Amino acid sequence: MAYIQKNFHRIDEPSIYGYIPLPVSDKNEIKHPAVYLAADLAFTKYGDNYRQPWLIVRMADMQTIYPTLKPVFYRQKTD
After folding, report:
1. Of 2, 60, 69, 77, which one has the greatest count of Cβ atoms within 10 A?
2. pTM for this one?
3. What are phi and psi of 41, to 5 degrees?
4. Taking 90 as the threshold, does the pLDDT of residue 4 lie above it?
């Protein structure tokens, strides 16, 4: 999380490709990073096995899988 806070700006809502939605716990721990694609779509991977495929999923579906986590959005700093 320290790397994210140093290199990314927190934003209210993603609007363009490349923004990072991060479901975080109430202890501010990152639980499931993804890459925002467009509309309600994100590119992500479930599980920690390298054989697990990368998927395009709906943001709402990610929230259903992690209902206790709040989504927080970031974009990379350009300065």
Report:
1. 69
2. 0.76
3. -115, 145
4. no
Give Cα 35 distance to the centre of its chain: 6
Q: Token digits for 26?
A: 């109430």
Cβ-contact 9, 77 below 8 angstroms: yes
| Whole-angstrom distance, CA of residue 60 vs CA of residue 2 | 26
Longest dimension (CA), the chain: 36
In this structure, which amino acid lies at residue 52? Q
Calculate Rg over the CA atoms of the chain.
Answer: 12
pLDDT at 79 over 70: no
The values of phi and psi at residue 70, to 5°, are -100, 135
Cα–Cα dist 76/45, whole Å: 20
